[in-house]
Amino acid sequence: MSGLHHVTGITADVQANVDFYVGFLGLKLVKRTAGYADSEQLHLIYGDGLGSPGSLLTFLVWEATGRGRTGIGQVLEIALAVPPASIESWLSKALAAGVPFEGPSREFGEPVLRLRDPDGLIVKLVGVALSTPAPLPEGPIRLRGVTVLTDKARETAEFLTVFGYKYAQHTGLTQRMTSETDVVDVRDASGFVPSVAGAGVPDHVAFRAKDADDIRTLRQSLLDHGPTEIHDRKYFLSLYVRDPAGILMEYATDGPGMTIDEAPEALGRTLFFPPHVAGHTQDIEAMLPQFSMPGDERFPVRKLPFVHRFNRPERPDGTTLVLLHGSGGNEADLMPIARRIAPQATLLGVRGRATEEQINRWFRRFDATTFDQADIQSEAAAFAAFVEDAVINYGIDVTRLFFLGYSNGANFLAAVMQVYPSAVRRAVLLRAVQVLDPLPAEDLSGTHVLMVNGQDSYAPVLADNLRAQGAQVDTRTVPSGHELIAADVAEVADWLGLGYAGQ
Hints:
The protein is an alpha/beta fold and 503 residues long. The protein folds into two domains: 273 residues, 2,3-Dihydroxybiphenyl 1,2-Dioxygenase, domain 1; 200 residues, 3-Layer(aba) Sandwich (Rossmann fold). The protein has ten helices and 28 strands. The strands form five sheets. The protein has a nine-stranded mixed sheet. Strands 6-7-8-5-9-12-11-10 form an eight-stranded mixed sheet, with helices on one face. It has a seven-stranded mixed sheet with strand order 18-20-19-25-26-27-28, with helices on both faces. Helix 6 crosses helix 10 and helix 7 packs across helix 8. The chain is elongated and about 80 Å long. One of its GO terms (molecular function) is dioxygenase activity. Keywords: Dioxygenase, Oxidoreductase.
């Protein structure tokens, strides 16, 4: 057995990704799971009607991440087979949908139309007569191939022979390697820049193995090559290895396959979780980005100054809880605890815009106890404007709007209240301290605040300052340090249930 099993890419926008690969290309979403390597990462798999090996494109969702850089040691482009006579209709479809394209042209005697997906990944449609076990009426047939960039072209081509590929045509800087069904084009990119992981750059390419015996046999043959890893991904068993140029390659079994836990007609409808996170699935589900299938009713996301993400329960009660993470967190970090606090609330997680040693924060600091006051003021103004825009654009009921911040996010939230009291009227501050100096003379009458402190993190100065400005402040202490515990959930849920939403 030889040929491609799947290709895995990275996307920064799950909704745009689904709209392109299902809505535009016509592939079928055959599986959605929490990641096996990182369970807080959504993993989507597209393919033919059965999710057959050789038809699969998979994407790791790095929501709102930066664009990667295509370079040496990575896949440059993915090729999908379509009927040769359909290239013209795909060109018309791309024009009508506003999808960027190049061509048509001819490569190795085959008609080619290059498209770019929403993350910038090159998806090459190749007119070639191939087959797949469960063809889709309007989608591509299967994977036709990949192009890889290498500064060790001879060694990369030779390495591909272990997966059953054979030498074929050589044109310019490209050596074509062929299996029984598809191709790998090895492009000599000596002198080019190395790849950088990110949106629009594939993560790895996987080749087909018949069964576990094939995996073991190949691993034994690679003992002198370098390190390998074997992973059970439930739907297939796989071996990971890097070629001489550092390209990540996978050897994956055909079985058990995508229908092991879903009937063919129900493929892609259920979110599955790896077994090692059993008992934590509700927390993880709260952190994973949500999306709608093409044609389904959806909640449009607006482009606002702060990266943000919604999590909506099946039956929302009209409450919105805005979440501000601690240092090093992101817009999803507080969603598990917030979902336990308010099971029927719509959650709006927001990401701070300041960074320190590549971790997210809400404002700059000069050292551990000295904060950039100008930056706090500037970011507070931006956040207040963000809240105003979010209320208008998303139709949020301000009488049922609450804010919850933790640590650095709580510090910033308190500062926003103190400078722009109309933006935040009901707030939960977890492990907060006073960071704004000097204290503004704003009137906080009508503002309700819950401060939950750990036993060693009580902040009387902030509480006193908020009261001095007119806020109603309820302070509570839980048997913890700076970390959050179950008692925090109970205290906040109790406070939210006291009727502040109507005040």
